[in-house]
Amino acid sequence: MTGSPHPPGPKFLLLQGHLELGSGLGRSNSWTCCPCISQKSPLQTIGEEQTQNPYTELLVLKAHHDIVRFLVQLDEYRFASAGDDGIVVVWNAQTGEKLLELNGHTQKITAIITFPPLEVCEEKNQLILTASADRTVIVWDCDTGRQVQKVSCFQSTVKCLIVLQRLDIWLSGGNDLCVWNRKLDLLCKTSHLSDTGISALIEIPKNCVVAAVGKELIIFRLVTPTGESLEWDILEIKRLLDHQDNILSLVNVNDLSFVTGSHVGEMIIWNILDWTVQARECNFWDPSPQLDTQQEIKLCQKPNDISIHHFTWDEENVFAAVGRGLYVYNLQMKRVIACQKTAHDSSVLHIAKLPNRQLISCSEDGSVRIWELREKQQLAAEPVPTGFFNMWGFGRVNKQASQPVKKQQENAPPCSLELIGDLIGHSSSVEMFLYFEDHGLVTCSADHLIILWKNGERESGLRSLKLFQKLEENGDLHLAV
Amino acid sequence: MISAPDVVAFTKEEEYEEEPYNEPALPEEYSVPLFPFASQGANPWSKLSGAKFSRDFILISEFSEQVGPQPLLTIPNDTKVFGTFDLNYFSLRIMSVDYQASFVGHPPGSAYPKLNFVEDSKVVLGDSKEGAFAYVHHLTLYDLEARGFVRPFCMAYISADQHKIMQQFQELSAEFSKASECLKTGNRKAFAGELEKKLKDLDYTRTVLHTETEIQKKANDKGFYSSQAIEKANELASVEKSIIEHQDLLKQILSYPHRKSKGSALCSAETEHAQDQADQVATTSNPDESADADLYTCRPAYTPKLIKAKSTKCFDKKLKTLEELCDTEYFTQTLAQLSHIEHMFRGDLCYLLTSQIDRALLKQQHITNFLFEDFVEVDDRMVEKQESAPPKPSPGRPPSRSLDECPIPQVFISVGSYKSSVESVPIKMEQELGDEEYKEVEVTELSSFDPQENLDCLDMDMKGSISSGESIEVLGTEKSTSVLSKSDSQASLTVPLSPQVVRSKAVSHRTISEDSIEVLSTCPSEALIPDDFKASYPSAINEEESYADDSEGAIHFQASISPPELGEAEEGSLENTLSQTDSSCCIGKESDSLRVPLSTPAPTHSDPDGVVSSPPQRYRQKDQGFHVDFAGENASPSRDNSSEGFPAFELDPSRLLASRDVSKTSLDNYSDTTSNMSSIASTSSDRTPSSAHPTGPSSERHKKRAGQNALKFIRQYPFAHPAIYSLLSGRTLVVLGEDEAIVRKLVTALSIFVPNHSRHAKPVKHWVSSPLHITDFQKWKLIGLQRVTSPAGAGTLHTLSRYSRYTSILDLDSKTLRCPLYRGALVPRLADHRTHIKRGSTYYLHVQSVLTQLCSKAFLYTFCHHLHLPAHDRETEELLASRRASFLKLNLGLVNEDMKVVQYLAELLKLHYVQEPPGTGHPTLRFDYVPSFLYKI
To answer: Staple B58 to which of A214, B75, B612, B677, CB 3.0 to 4.6 Å?
Structure first.
C-alpha cells in the first residue's frame, strides 16, 4: 500500500461529556462507552451487550515509543508495524510475540510496503521497503531482520511507495517519481513535480501509474526496455484537474475504475483505461442544517469534517470514510446506498470491508467500530426514535420527521449500516488496522500501542488444542477405549 | 442425690435473667477450684501447663571430659523460654543415653589411631517428672586435644508434647542431621587445620631435636651415649612416631569429605557456599580462622613452635568451645539452621500436621495450585531449598508424610512406612548409593544382612539404658539417616519392639513409675520391616488396620480433589458416571486404581524383601506419585520426585506459626472479643507471644487480616457477591476511594478471591492515582484507585468510564458497585454474609477450600478431551459448545454465571499449562460484552 498522508501529531482524545463518575455511579443504570452520548450527539452507540461482536479477548503489544501509523501484513501470521519512532517491528499475529525489531531509520517512517519475492527467484525471503523522513528508503529482510540495502540519494522525503510486481520494480514518490529495480538501481525518474509531493500512487493497466499531486492527478507511463533500447523511462501522459481540493485518497476499485477522494468531499470514479470521469459524488457535505450540527461543530471543531480519508471497496460498492461518517456508494446504481454521517466522534481514518458484509472503521476518537451493511426493510421504515437512527438519509430527516413515510422512502437509501460492535482500547487516535482472517484484528494507535483483538471463543479452542497437543507430545494422553 | 451446687446451677439461669445483680454467692466449700494454671494465662488443655518451660526449645549440650555433661546453649537464647527448667539436669539425662560406640585409639591390628567416622544417633527420650520430652541428636566432633580426639555433643529438641516429638521424628531427624552435618563439616576442616599446625610443630620439633642430637653426637666422641643423648633420641623417635600418627590422622580426615559429603550432601550446597565464603575470608583475614579444603596444605602464616612430642592430657587446660571446634562460619550456619528448626516446629502438633498435610496435598495439585495459593511463599521456599540443599537424601521424608497423614494424636511409629519411603524415592537412593561406594556392597546385600549382630547391638543399648535406673524414657533411637545399609539392617532392631507394644508399655510404665527408664521404641530411620515380622505381630497389624480407615477417608478426599487422576481417567467414564456431582465422573475408575493397592500389597521395584504390606496410606501416596506420571500432568517425573523429596514442612509451617504468634499479639482491629478468646483458647502449646521473627513475613497475619476484612466486606455490603464474581471471572475490579488506607485494606481483603495468572505475580495493584490504561486491565485484576476531586482527577474518571466494559467499579465513597449481574450459586457459598465464621483466618481457610474445589472443577473441565476437541471429524463446533455447556451444568453443577468463572479459570489453566516455561506468556485480557448494573446499599 502507499503511504497516505495522515494528520500529523498525536491527537489525544477530547475529553467530552460528563466527568462525574461518582455521581454517575449513583444515577445511571447502564453506562455508555461513548462520552458524547450525554451531549445528545447523534452518534450511534451500542450498549455493553454486543452479541455479534466476536472480539472478546485482547492483547496489548508494546514496542513503539511514538505514534504507530502503519501496519502491513507479511503473511498469514505475521505483520509489521511502523510509525513515528522510526522503528519497524515484526509481530506474530497469533501469539502477539514480537519477532523482530528493525532499526535503521533516524526519523519517522512515512511509507511502508512489502516486496513479495519473485516466483522464480531462489531467495524466498520476504522483503519490506520503508521510506522515512530522513530521506532514505531501506529494504529489509523480514525473515532475518537484516537490512538488505539502503538508498539515501533522495532529494525529498518519500511519501509513498508502490511495487509493480509484474515488472519487478518499485516506485518512490516524493517531490519527484523514481523508478527502481529490485537491486535498488535507479532506473529512471521524473523531473521535479511539486513541492508538496506525491501523496498517493496506484498502478493502472498499460504500464501506467496514477499519482496524486495536490489537486491534480498525473498519469505516467513507464517505458520498459525493449530490443532497441535498454533504457527505462517514465513519461507524463496526462493531468486530470477535476478535483477542487487536495486529493487525499486514491485507490483501484476494480479492473475498470479507480476512485479518488479529496479534502472537500468530492469522490470521483474514473475509468481506468481512458481516465475519464465515470461518476462523481460531491454531496457528502450536504449543507442542510441538522439539528445537532451546530452543537457538533462547536464541540468538535472539525472544519475538515468531510474530507475523504480512505476508501475501500468490494464488487458492488465503494465504501468511503468521509469526515466522521461512513458512506456506501453503489457502483451500479451510482448513488450512495447507505451512510452513517456520524459514525465516530471524529475523523474516520481507515476502513476495511470484511467478507461477511461487515465494515470496520477506526477513527481519531480512539475507537474501532464494526458495522454491518443491511438491506433496509421497506416496511420497517417507520419513523424511528430520533437520536438513534436519525442519521440515515440525506439530512432533513430530523426536521421533516413528520413527513409522510412515502417521501422518506424515496429519499432514504435502500441499505443501512448497523453498528454491531465497538472496540474500546486505545486511548488515542486509531491510525490503522489490519484484519486477519484467522487471528482477528490488529489496531495501531497514536497512544504507541498495538492491540490484537481476538475472538475469545476461538482462542479458547485453540488453547485447548494446544494443551492436548502438548499432553500428547509428553505421551500423557491416553484415549479411553 | 442432688447436691446443693447442682440445684443452684440449675436454677441460676432464670434468676439471672430477672435479677442479674442479686446473685447469691456460692458457699466456699462448693465452689469448683479454678484451674491452677489459669493465673499464668494457661488453658486447661495446655500440656505445657505441667512443664517448667514455656515452649519448645533446642538445647545443645556437651559431655565435657572435665566437668561432665553441661548445657552449652539454647535456641532461642532466652531464659524466659526454658524458665525454671533445669538445663544441667536435663543435659545430664540426655548425655547419659549417648550410645556412642565411637572409638578412637589403637584398634587391635592397627598401628595407628583410627578415626571412626561415627554416625549420629537419634534418640527420643522423655522425662515424665519434668514433663519434658526430647528428640536427642548425638554427634561427635574431633578435637586434637580431647581425650581420644573426640568430644561428644548433643542437640536436643525439647518439648512438653510427647506426641509431637514422636510424630515429627522424621522431620526432626532430617533437620537436625542437616545441622549436625554442618557442624561436622566445619569441625573436620578445623580439625584438619589443627592437625596441620600440629604437624608443622612436630616437624619443627623434629628438626630441632635432630640438630641437637647431631650436635651431641659430634660433641660426644666417647663411643657411648649419654643418658641425655638417649633421652633425646627417644624423644626424637616419639616425635617421628607422632608425626606419622598425625599424618595418618590428617589423611583420614581429609579423605572423609570426598567419599562422604557427596553422598550425604546434607549441606553440600551450604558447604560450598561456606567454602566460597571461607575462601573470601581466607584471602582477606587470618587464614588460621578459615579452614578451607584448599588451604589444608598451605599455611604460610603459621609459625611452628617447639612442642612436646607426647601430648599432655591435662585437665587444667581450657577446652575449645563449640565455635572454635567448628569454624565460626559453620557454627553460625548451624545456629541458623537450628533456629530454623525451632521456627519450623513451633506450635501445636495438630497445626504442624495439618499444615504438612496441606502442603503435601497442595503439591499434588501442581497444575492448578498456582491459581489461588500463596505461591510466592511456597515457591520461594522451594527455590531456596533447591539452591541450598539440592540432592537431599530424604529417605526419612515421605514416611513422615505418611505419619502426618494419619491425624490421630497417638504415638505410633509405623516401621513399615519407612519401607515404602525407600520405594518412593528410588532416584534419590540410587544417587546416594552411587556416591557412597564404600557402602555399596552392603547395600547390594540388603536381604542378607545379619539380624543377630544388630540384635546384639540393640540389646546392649537397651540394657545399658534400662539399667541406669534414671527417670529417662528412651522413646526411640535412630541411627543415621544417611546410611542406608545400616538403617536397613536395623530393621531387625525393631523386631522385638513393635511400636504398638512398646507404646502401651510406655504408657503403663509412666503411670506407675516416677523414676524409671522407659524405652518406648527404637526408631530406625528407614528401616525395612520384614514381612514375617508383621505377621507375627497382630498388634501392629491391628494398628495398621485402624490406619486404613483413616487413609480411606484420605483416599476419598484425594479422589475428589486430585486433579491429575481425574483428568486422566475421565475420558472413558465421563459419559456414564457424570451424573454424580463434581469430579465424581472419574471416581469409578479412580477408586479402583486406588483400592487395589489397599487390598493387595503391590510389589515394588526396590523392595529387597519381596512383598511388603505397608500401611495403606503409603500406597496411596505412591499411587499418587504413580498417577502423576501416568496422567502426565507433570512433564518430568523426576522433578516430581525431587519435589516430593522435600518434606512438606519445608514449605514452612514455622513461618505460619511465627506470624501466628504475631497475629496473636496484634489482633486485628475487627476481631471481636469472641474471636480473641477463641484464638487464645485454640493455641495450646505455643503460648508466648513472640515478637517479629526474622523468617516470618506477615503472610499468616496477612491472611488473617485479609480474611477478616473480607468477612467484614461481605457483611457490610449486600453486593459483595457480584463483586467477588467479577474477581473470580477475571473482570478487573476497581476499588475507588479517597482514603488510601481504606482502599488498600479492602484491596488486600479482596485479593484472596483473585485467581493468579502465574506463580510469579498476583494481579493486584493496591493503589494507583494515575488514570488507568488498557494495559492495566490486562495486567491487574484488582486495582485500588484514588479518587481525586481536583480537575486532574477528571481524566482518571473519564478513562474509567471509557473502559467501563472491562471493569467493575466499587465506589467506596458512595458505597456503590457497578458490575454485571450475578445469579450463580457459587459465590453465596463462598461469601455468605450470615456465616457463623468469626475469625479471619478461619474464613480465609473456608475461602481456600471452596476455591480449591472450584479449581478442581476447572481442572476437570480443562482436561476433558471430548469437551474441547471433536471426537470425530463430523462433529461441529456447535455440538462441542453444547457439550461443554451441559458438562458445566449437569456434571459440575454450575448455574448461570458460575460457568463463566470455571471457564475463566480453565483459560488460565490452559495458558499456564501450555506456556513454556510456565508463566511467561502474554496475559490476554478477556472480557464479555455484558451489561452492567448499579448496586447500592
So the answer is: B75
Residues of B in contact with A478 (CB under 8 A): 568, 571
Asked if A478 lies within 8 A of B568 by C-beta distance, the reply is yes
* pTM metric for this prediction: 0.63
Chain A interface disruption, residue of B366, B585, B731, B797, most A CBs within 10 A: B797
Residues 6+ apart with CB under 8 A from A109: A69, A70, A82, A83, A84, A86, A88, A130, A131, A132, A133
Question: Mean pLDDT in chain B?
Answer: 63
- So what's the pLDDT on residue B50? 59
Q: Is B693 part of a structural domain of the chain? A: no
Number of domains chain B contains: 2
The SS3 assignment for B889 reads helix
Q: Which residue has the cell 457497578?
A: B818
Taking only the tens place, the pLDDT of each residue in B39-49 is 555 555 554 44
CA dist list (Å): B936 to A199, B178, B342, B441:
56, 59, 50, 77
Q: What percent of chain B has pLDDT over 70?
A: 50
CA neighbor of B859 nearest in space, from B357, B376, B371, B362: B371
Contact A30 B632 (CB under 8 A): no
| Domain span including residue B778 | 700-915
Closest partner residue to A480 (CB to CB) among B572, B794, B804 is B572
What b/e string do you get for A380-396 counting C-beta neighbours within 10 Å, with b at 16 or more?
ebeeeeebebbbbbebe
Between chain A and chain B, the number of residue pairs with CB atoms below 8 A apart is 158
| Lowest mean per-residue pLDDT among A128-142, B316-330, B803-817 | B316-330
Strand residue runs (E) in B833-888: none
Cis amide prior to B33 (ω within 30 degrees):
no
Question: Could you tell me if residue B233 is inside a domain?
Answer: yes
| Grid cell at residue B682 | 485454640
Query: Would the CB atoms of A33 and B929 count as touching at under 8 Å?
Result: no
Cross-chain Cβ contact A467/B775 below 8 Å: no
- Residue B912's pLDDT is what? 85
Asked if B805 contacts B927 with a C-beta cutoff of 8 angstroms, the reply is: yes
User: pLDDT digits over B441-482, tens only?
Assistant: 443 344 344 444 444 433 343 433 333 334 444 444 444 333
Calpha distance B340→B330 (Å, rounded): 15
Amino acid A139 reads V
DSSP A245: S
Of B787, B795, B921, the CB nearest to A22: B787
Which tens digits make up the pLDDT trace of B76-104?
A: 887 777 777 788 888 887 877 655 544 44
* Nearest-CB residue to B797 (from A19, A53, A480): A19
Report which residue type is found at A46. I
Using a CB-CB distance cutoff of 8 angstroms, which residues of chain B are in contact with residue A454? 924
Chain A 34-53, CB below 8 Å of chain B: which residues?
35, 47-51, 53
Cβ contact, residue pair B914, A466, below 8 Å: yes
**pLDDT above 50: residue B530:** no
Q: Which band of pLDDT confidence, cut at 50, 70 and 90, is reported for residue A360?
A: very high
pLDDT, greater one: B501 or B865: B865
Record: contact B572-A35, CB cut-off 8 A: no
- Is B928 part of any domain? no
Cβ–Cβ < 8 Å for B417, B396: no
Task: Report the residue of chain A nearest B791, measured CA to CA.
Answer: A19
Q: Which of B573, B797, B910 is nearest residue A21 as measured by Cβ atoms?
A: B797
**Does B797 contact A30 at a Cβ distance shorter than 8 Å?**
no
Residue A461 contacts B, CB cutoff 8 Å: yes
Is the Cβ–Cβ distance between B155 and B139 less than 8 Å? yes
CB contact under 8 A, A57 and B877: no
For residue B864, being part of any structural domain is answered with yes
Tell which wins on pLDDT, B412 or A119: A119
